[in-house]
Design brief:
Pnp Oxidase, Chain A; 193 residues; 8 strands; 20% helix; globular; pyridoxal 5'-phosphate synthase
């Protein structure tokens, strides 16, 4: 897709900045209120444009996304002055999935993460009050063990991408065309920034 080449160029140009792989993911939260959080880009799903995000299956956002699977990414690259707003449908892939291909994607994403990152899923549930700092103790995980129950892979399937380059004062809107239930090619339109 044409926007993905722009995104890859921005990732490459900003690769020296650790925060360039962080973006904000906005979803519809409880009672229809907006919910936003910073997440880490875990790559694209193979042979498509779906963006992968690791998360804890015990977090509130999982139930919220299952109820309203719409989401938008806002990703700003500080060195190249580029912003991508990517909206689409989010799929929740946890251990209860009945689709063997999705379970395989989940496992592949699990092993692509560092052992330190994987160990986060062995702690207490996110948002649970803690009486002391016992939850910070070292947690050890077998590096060869598959995904734990708390690990969840989210994939955002883009439908619209709003790209702004503030250095060149250029803005492009990319929209995926749809026929029935099937999405097809991307259309690009230059618009006023």
């Amino acid at each position: 897709s044409p926007w993905r080449a722009l995104l890859q160029r921005a990732l490459d140009a900003n690769a020296h900045l650790k925060h360039s792989t962080f973006f904000q993911l906005a979803t519809v939260g409880a009672a229809g209120r907006p919910a936003n959080r910073t997440v880490v880009f875990r790559g694209f799903q193979e042979q498509c444009d779906k963006i992968q995000i690791n998360t804890d299956a015990r977090s509130n956002k999982i139930g919220e996304i299952r109820e309203w699977p719409l989401g938008e990414i806002c990703w700003y690259f500080t060195d190249s002055w580029e912003q991508f707003r990517i909206s689409g449908i989010i799929d929740v892939i946890d251990g209860s999935s009945l689709d063997p291909a999705k379970l395989q994607q989940r496992e592949k994403a699990w092993f692509a993460s560092s052992v330190k990152s994987r160990s986060q899923y062995l702690g207490q549930s996110p948002g649970v009050p803690v009486a002391n700092d016992d939850h910070i103790k070292d947690v050890h995980i077998d590096p060869s063990a598959g995904p734990v129950d708390a690990y969840c892979l989210l994939t955002l399937d883009p439908e619209k991408v709003d790209y702004v380059n503030l250095k060149s004062n250029q803005r492009l809107m990319f929209t995926r065309t749809q026929e029935g239930d099937e999405f097809n090619d991307w259309m690009a339109e230059k618009v006023s920034p």
